[in-house]
C-alpha cells in the first residue's frame, strides 16, 4: 500500500509539471501544431524539419508534443518554415508559420499564423492533392484554393 | 483494492494530463487558442484594483468604434455631456462638469489633459481601430502607477502588429450624417521589428437642445494619426489628433451662447524601453493646444469667466488660445521571488502652460489679458513608490504599497504627500474569490481648478476608500458583488457666492454597490447583467443607479450583439428626469474576400439618457443626450 502511495505521488508530480508550466495559449498552439502534423503524416511520432523557425518555438514543440526534430530534410515526414524571404521549394509536406513565407513557397500545403487579430489556418487544396494528403472531415472548413491567399500576403 | 487504485491512477492521469490524448476538434482547438491568447490575459494587473475587461472579441462584437461606446457601460458612473459638450464620466450625483479623478492610458502613456486632468476632451470619441482591448480599473489610490493619484484608470492597449499582418479600411455612415473614414495597417517586419499605423477622420452629430431660444450644439469633427514601431525591446509611439466641436452651453450665463467652439489638439511621443530583468523605462513628451471661442449677448447675461466676470458689465465675447507641454519619465523595476513580487518605481512629471492669447470684449470694448490673467505657469510632481505582493500561501495574496509624492504648483511652496494602500486577494475555494483594498490617498486639483479657485490655491482632497468584491463561479456562470465606500475630506466644490472653487469644510461620504452576472453560452457567446446603486439620493444632478443587460455571440459568418443601458430616474433642480433605457442592436456578417458588413442601431427605443440644467438666470429644463440612429459600416481587410 505504501509503495502504491509513493508511486501515486511520483505519478502526480511527473504529470503536474506539464500543463501548469506553460501558458495556456502556448499549450493550445502546441496542440494545434501537433494535431496538424499527426493528421497530415498519419504518424504518431512524426519527424519534423524546421527551417527558419525560432529556437524557442522549436524547443517548445519538442518539449510539449510528440513531434521529433530531424536535422536533415530528407529524413523528415514534415516541414515547418518561417521567415522565408526568397523562393522556397517544398519537397516535403510543408506548412508556413507566417504569411511572408507562404507567398514564397509555391508548394506549401498551408499556413498557420495570425492575421487581423485571430489565428488563421488555411490549407491549400491543390498542394494537398499534390502530396496525396487526405485529411479528416473536420478540416473541410480550412481547405481553400491557393488563389485565396496568393496575392494577399 | 489494487485494481481500484490502478483505476484511480489512470483516471487521475487522464484528468491532469493535457496531452492531445483527448481528441478535440481542430476548430475547437483554434477557438480555445484564440480565447487563451487574448492579450488582456497578459496585461491584466490584479493588484491595481477591481477590473472590468473589454476584450478584442467584445469590442468587435459590440461594434464599439469609439471610446464612449465603452464608457457608457462602466458601472457606478454616468456618461453625460458636460457644459462644454464633452461626453464625460461622472460619479453618480455629480453635476456634469470637468472631472479630475479619471486617468486614461494608451499602452504605457497617460494621455489625460495637462490642464484639467480629464482625458475626455480629446478621447471621448477616440477611434478604437488601433485598440486591441480595454481594461477599466476601479483603482482608487493605486500605488503602482506613474501618475497623480486617481479614482479610476482606463487602459487602452494597442494591437500587436505580429498578430495583425493586415491592413484595413473602414467606412462608417449614420442616419444623422455622422461618418468615419479610417485606415489601419500593422505588420511584423521581421522577428525583431514591427509597425502599426492608423489614421482616421470622423464627424459626430448630436441632438441640439433649445435653451433660451437658441439651439446649442456639440457636434464634433476629429482627425487622428497613431504610429507605433518596435525594434527589439524598444517601443516608439507617436500620436496626433485634433477635435473641433461646438462649445455647447459653454460659459454663458444663460447656458445658451450665440456662438461657441472648442478646438483641441493633442500630440505626444513616447519611448518605452524594456531592459530585461523586469526593468522598464518610459519617457514622453506631450504638447496640447486648446482654443476656445464664445459669444453671448449682454441681454442674455454675457459669459461667466471666473475673475473677470462683472454682473453689470459681463464679457460678451471671450477667446483663449492655450499651449501646454508635459515632460514625463518613469522607471520601474520588479523583483520576483518565490513569495514576493516587489515593485519599485519612480516618476517625474513637469508641466508648462503658455498663454498664446486671452482676450475678451465687454460693454467698454476689447481687453487683452494675455499677460495679466492668472495662470499656473508650471507644475511638477515627483514620486517614489514601493508595492509588494506577498503570497501568504497558495490561496492568499497580500498587497501593500506606499507612495511618496512631492509636488509644486507655480507660485506656491512645494508639498509632500504620502499615499498608502493595502489589499487582499483570497481564493476561499476553487469557485469563490474575494478581493479587497483599503487606500488612503490625495487627489490633487488640476491646473484649471486652481486657476478658477477663489484664492488661487487649493488643498488636495484627502480620500479614504474601501473597496471589496466577491466573485463566485459555478458551471458556466459567474456572479460578482462589488462594494465601495469613499470618505473624502477637503472636498473641492464650486462656490456660487465667490464665483470660484473652494475647499469645502464638509466631508463627503459615498457608498456604492454593484451586482454582476455573466453566463457563458459558448465560445465568444455570453449574456451579462449588471445593476448598481449608490446612496447619493435622487435629488442630485446625475443618476444614482444604473445597469445593463448585454448579450452577444458568433454564429458562423454572423455575429449579433444587443445591450440595454439603464439609468435610474432622478430629480435635479426640482425637475423629474425619467429613467432611461438605451437600446443598441448590432449585427455583422463576414463576406468573401475579407469584406465585412455591419449594421448598428443606437438608442432604438428613443428612451436614452436625459440631462437636466439650471442656468444662472434660474431657467431649467431637460434634454435628450442621444438621437435614435442607424449606422452602417463596411470594412475591407487586405
Protein architecture, described:
The complex is a heterodimer of chains A (153) and B (638). Chain A is of the alpha/beta class and 153 residues long. Chain A has a single domain, classed as Rossmann fold (3-Layer(aba) Sandwich), CATH 3.40.50. Chain A has 5 helices and 7 strands. Chain A has a 7-stranded mixed sheet. Chain A starts with a helix and ends in a 9-residue tail after the last strand. Chain B is mainly β. Chain B has a single domain (45-637), classed as Maltoporin, Chain A (Beta Barrel), CATH 2.40.170. Chain B contains 7 helices and 36 strands. In chain B, the strands form 6 sheets. Chain B has a 22-stranded antiparallel barrel. In chain B, a hairpin with a 2-residue loop joins strand 24 and strand 25 (477-489). Chain B is globular, with a radius of gyration of 25 Å. Chain B starts with a helix and ends with a strand. The model of chain B is unreliable at 8-21 (pLDDT under 50). The chains are: A alpha/beta (153), B mainly beta (638). The interface between A and B is large, with 42 and 39 residues.
Explain the layout of strands and helices:
The complex is a heterodimer of chains A (153) and B (638).
Chain A: H1 2-21, H2 24-41, E1 47-51, H3 55-64, E2 68-69, E3 78-81, E4 94-96, H4 99-103, E5 110-115, E6 118-124, H5 125-130, E7 143-144
Parallel strand pairs in A: 1-2, 1-3, 3-4, 4-5, 6-7
Antiparallel strand pairs in A: 5-6
Chain B: H1 2-16, H2 26-36, H3 40-43, E1 50-54, H4 56-62, H5 68-71, E2 78-81, E3 87-90, E4 102-106, E5 109-110, H6 120-123, E6 131-138, E7 152-158, E8 166-174, E9 179-190, E10 193-204, E11 210-211, E12 214-215, E13 220-231, E14 234-246, E15 259-274, E16 279-295, E17 317-336, E18 340-362, E19 365-368, E20 378-393, E21 396-409, E22 415-427, E23 432-443, H7 447-451, E24 461-474, E25 477-489, E26 492-495, E27 500-503, E28 508-522, E29 525-534, E30 545-555, E31 558-567, E32 580-591, E33 595-602, E34 610-614, E35 620-624, E36 629-637
Parallel strand pairs in B: 4-7
Antiparallel strand pairs in B: 1-6, 2-3, 4-5, 6-7, 8-9, 8-36, 9-10, 10-13, 11-12, 13-14, 14-15, 15-16, 16-17, 17-18, 18-19, 18-20, 20-21, 21-22, 22-23, 23-24, 24-25, 25-28, 26-27, 28-29, 29-30, 30-31, 31-32, 32-33, 33-36, 34-35
Amino acid at each position: 500500500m505504501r509503495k502504491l502511495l509513493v508511486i501515486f505521488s511520483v505519478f502526480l508530480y511527473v504529470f503536474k509539471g506539464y500543463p501548469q508550466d506553460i501558458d495556456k495559449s502556448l499549450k493550445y498552439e502546441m496542440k494545434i501544431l501537433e494535431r496538424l502534423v499527426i493528421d497530415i503524416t498519419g504518424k504518431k511520432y512524426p519527424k519534423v524539419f524546421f527551417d527558419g523557425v525560432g529556437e524557442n518555438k522549436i524547443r517548445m514543440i519538442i518539449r510539449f508534443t510528440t513531434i521529433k526534430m530531424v536535422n536533415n530534410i530528407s529524413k523528415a515526414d514534415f516541414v515547418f518554415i518561417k521567415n522565408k524571404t526568397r523562393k522556397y521549394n517544398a519537397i516535403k509536406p510543408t506548412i508556413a508559420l507566417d504569411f511572408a513565407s507562404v507567398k514564397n513557397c509555391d508548394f506549401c500545403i498551408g499556413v498557420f499564423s495570425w492575421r487581423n487579430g485571430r489565428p488563421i489556418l488555411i490549407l491549400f487544396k491543390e498542394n494537398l492533392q499534390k502530396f496525396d494528403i487526405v485529411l479528416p472531415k473536420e478540416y473541410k472548413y480550412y481547405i481553400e484554393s491557393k488563389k485565396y491567399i496568393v496575392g494577399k500576403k | 483494492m489494487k485494481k481500484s487504485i490502478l483505476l484511480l491512477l489512470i483516471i487521475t492521469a487522464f484528468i491532469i494530463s493535457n496531452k492531445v490524448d483527448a481528441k478535440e476538434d481542430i476548430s475547437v482547438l483554434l477557438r480555445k487558442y484564440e480565447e487563451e491568447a487574448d492579450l488582456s490575459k497578459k496585461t491584466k494587473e490584479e493588484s491595481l484594483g477591481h477590473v472590468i475587461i473589454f476584450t478584442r472579441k467584445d469590442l468587435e462584437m459590440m461594434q464599439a468604434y469609439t471610446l464612449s461606446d465603452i464608457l457608457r457601460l462602466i458601472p457606478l458612473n454616468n456618461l453625460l455631456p458636460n457644459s462644454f459638450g464633452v461626453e464625460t464620466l461622472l460619479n453618480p450625483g455629480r453635476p456634469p462638469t470637468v472631472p479630475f479623478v479619471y486617468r486614461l492610458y494608451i499602452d504605457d502613456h497617460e494621455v489625460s489633459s495637462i490642464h484639467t486632468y480629464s482625458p475626455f476632451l480629446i478621447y471621448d470619441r477616440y477611434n478604437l481601430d488601433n485598440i486591441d482591448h480595454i481594461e477599466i480599473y476601479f483603482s482608487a489610490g493605486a500605488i503602482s502607477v506613474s501618475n497623480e493619484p486617481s479614482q479610476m484608470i482606463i487602459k487602452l492597449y494597442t494591437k500587436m502588429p505580429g498578430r495583425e499582418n493586415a491592413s484595413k479600411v473602414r467606412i462608417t455612415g449614420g442616419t444623422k450624417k455622422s461618418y468615419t473614414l479610417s485606415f489601419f495597417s500593422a505588420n511584423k517586419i521581421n522577428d525583431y521589428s514591427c509597425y502599426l499605423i492608423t489614421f482616421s477622420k470622423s464627424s459626430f452629430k448630436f441632438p441640439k437642445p433649445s435653451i433660451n431660444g437658441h439651439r446649442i450644439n456639440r457636434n464634433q469633427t476629429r482627425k487622428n494619426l497613431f504610429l507605433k514601431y518596435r525594434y527589439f525591446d524598444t517601443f516608439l509611439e507617436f500620436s496626433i489628433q485634433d477635435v473641433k466641436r461646438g462649445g455647447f452651453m459653454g460659459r454663458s450665463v444663460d447656458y445658451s451662447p450665440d456662438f461657441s467652439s472648442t478646438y483641441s489638439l493633442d500630440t505626444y511621443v513616447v519611448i518605452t524601453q524594456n531592459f530585461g530583468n523586469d526593468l522598464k523605462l518610459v519617457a514622453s513628451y506631450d504638447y496640447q493646444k486648446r482654443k476656445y471661442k464664445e459669444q453671448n449677448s449682454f441681454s442674455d447675461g454675457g459669459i461667466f469667466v471666473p475673475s473677470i466676470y462683472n454682473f453689470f458689465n459681463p464679457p460678451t465675447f471671450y477667446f483663449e488660445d492655450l499651449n501646454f507641454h508635459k515632460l514625463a519619465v518613469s522607471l520601474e523595476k520588479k523583483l520576483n521571488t518565490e513569495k514576493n513580487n516587489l515593485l519599485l518605481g519612480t516618476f517625474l512629471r513637469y508641466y508648462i502652460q503658455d498663454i498664446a492669447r486671452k482676450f475678451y470684449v465687454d460693454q467698454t470694448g476689447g481687453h487683452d489679458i494675455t499677460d495679466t490673467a492668472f495662470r499656473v505657469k508650471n507644475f511638477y510632481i515627483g514620486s517614489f513608490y514601493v508595492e509588494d505582493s506577498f503570497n501568504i500561501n497558495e490561496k492568499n495574496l497580500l498587497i501593500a504599497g506606499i507612495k511618496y509624492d512631492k509636488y509644486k504648483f507655480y507660485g506656491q511652496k512645494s508639498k509632500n504627500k504620502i499615499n498608502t494602500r493595502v489589499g487582499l486577494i483570497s481564493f476561499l475555494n476553487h469557485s469563490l474569490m474575494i478581493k479587497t483594498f483599503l487606500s488612503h490617498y490625495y487627489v490633487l486639483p488640476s491646473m484649471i481648478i486652481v486657476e478658477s479657485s477663489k484664492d488661487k490655491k487649493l488643498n488636495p482632497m484627502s480620500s479614504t476608500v474601501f473597496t471589496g468584491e466577491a466573485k463566485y463561479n459555478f458551471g458556466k456562470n459567474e456572479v460578482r458583488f462589488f462594494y465601495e465606500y469613499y470618505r473624502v475630506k477637503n472636498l473641492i466644490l464650486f462656490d456660487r457666492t465667490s464665483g470660484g472653487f473652494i475647499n469645502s469644510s464638509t466631508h463627503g461620504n459615498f457608498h456604492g454597490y454593484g451586482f454582476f452576472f455573466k453566463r457563458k453560452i459558448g465560445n465568444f457567446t455570453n449574456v451579462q447583467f449588471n445593476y448598481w446603486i449608490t446612496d447619493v439620493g435622487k435629488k442630485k444632478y446625475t443618476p444614482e443607479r444604473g445597469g445593463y443587460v448585454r448579450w452577444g455571440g458568433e454564429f458562423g459568418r454572423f455575429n449579433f450583439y444587443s445591450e440595454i443601458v439603464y439609468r435610474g430616474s432622478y430629480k435635479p433642480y426640482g425637475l423629474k428626469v425619467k429613467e432611461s433605457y438605451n437600446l443598441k442592436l448590432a449585427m455583422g456578417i463576414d463576406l468573401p474576400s475579407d469584406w465585412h458588413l455591419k449594421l448598428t442601431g443606437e438608442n432604438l427605443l428613443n428612451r436614452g439618457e436625459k440631462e437636466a440644467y439650471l442656468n444662472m438666470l434660474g431657467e431649467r429644463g431637460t434634454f435628450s443626450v442621444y438621437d435614435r440612429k442607424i449606422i452602417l459600416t463596411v470594412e475591407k481587410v487586405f
